[in-house]
Design a protein that fits this description.
elongated, alpha+beta, about 190 residues
Length: about 190
């Protein structure tokens, strides 16, 4: 991930890049998120059909599919913003269902809250990386997806002669893969 500050940026002091730290972190996180989510489209267990709206019934069908496949709890569900909106509209009409606080294990992952004990995480990268699919899967070691940081992120300042400015480049090495392709690994939510 890299950003190019405007022409006024001058690296007299390496601490001058502090205003860009959040932007660099977000760029790196988006890249890793998109790479991991690209694996979702390869899961074969699916719920719903392309073009439909995510409903409470679809959500519960995914949950039951994991449970019947003996997937170990806890579960997380990664959805794109539109799918979360569809789910909220679907459960809003039902008085016995409500969102709960995020679980302790997923609060630092950006969980929006839990529904039926499943943490919901929003990612706009679902739309492109996974062909619009969301995913529900076990959290942690039993997940259908794996991510390993092989080298911590480093920051480099590289002068671009053509642009006559300095690029700030964040580099890391990581790996990602589908590691459990069975029903106990993950369920794709195909709904738009």
């Amino acid at each position: 991930a890299s950003i190019i500050p405007d022409q006024r940026f001058n690296i007299r002091d390496r601490y001058e890049f502090e205003p860009f730290i959040t932007e660099l972190g977000q760029a790196l996180a988006d890249k890793i998120d998109a790479d991991i989510l690209s694996e979702i489209s390869l899961f074969t267990t699916t719920i719903g059909a392309t073009g439909g709206k995510l409903t409470k019934s679809d959500f519960l069908a995914a949950l039951y599919t994991l449970e019947f496949g003996n997937a170990p709890k806890p579960f997380i569900c990664i959805l794109r913003p539109h799918q979360i909106d569809d789910l909220r509209i679907s459960i809003n009409a039902i008085t016995d269902v409500k969102w709960e606080r995020p679980s302790e294990y997923a609060i630092n992952l950006g969980s929006l809250g839990t529904l039926y004990g499943v943490d919901i995480i929003q990612s706009p990268n679902c739309a492109t990386a996974s062909h619009g699919s969301g995913v529900m899967m076990p959290f942690g070691d039993n997940s259908g997806l794996a991510y390993v940081m092989k080298r911590e992120a480093t920051t480099d300042f590289i002068f671009d002669e053509k642009m006559q400015t300095t690029k700030i480049v964040v580099t890391t090495v990581y790996g990602k893969a589908r590691i459990n392709t069975s029903v106990s690994g993950a369920v794709r939510l195909l709904l738009d």
